Amino acid sequence: MAAGGGNFWIIDDLATFKDTEWSKIQYPKLGVRIMYDLLVILSDDTVIFKLKLNNKSKACYKDKTVLLAYAEEDELHKIKFKLICTEESAQSFINTLSIYLPIHNVNTSGSGKLQAKIEVTGFQELFREELKRQTNYSNNESVFPPEFQLNEFLKLCIMDPTFPDMVDEVEKSLHKYLH
Predict the structure, then answer these.
(1) Domains of the chain by start residue, with CATH
(2) What is the residue-wise DSSP string for 40-99?
(3) Over the stretch 117-142, which tens digit does the pLDDT of each residue have?
């Protein structure tokens, strides 16, 4: 394995985010390759992970640590890894990745490690910005059409006996995605 040249880079500290925590993935000799619009993580010649780089994918990085978030079957997934290469080669990876998807440089303070909370916050901001860009939505505008009567709708919701259960489900789903 070459040390981060061309379109192949050696990586370490591979982890996925499930539920509320990161799970480290252990494989020897990890590397990442970008081929056309496909990001592939390999251990020797075995494919461990592949991701089609498209508008459902977003990325951020700090130093040589990269975080990818992608939507699959209406679920948000996250994977992170550390590039083991020179600064120049790491920048080459970032530049190559940015051809296929938005990538954001996360400026953090403290220990120098990306913390899960910082990463989630960074992605929330990225997704909000992308939503605004794609829909021309601003926080000052109402999300409801002018003819929509919010107060009447809320009264109907409160009178519905199944409404508290629905609120609980929504809160659990939001908590899952935001934490």
Answers:
(1) 8-135 (2.30.29.30), 146-179 (no CATH)
(2) EEEETTEEEEEEE-STTEEEEEETTEEEEEEEETTEEEEEEEEE-S-HHHHHHHHHHHHT
(3) 334 445 556 666 666 655 555 555 56
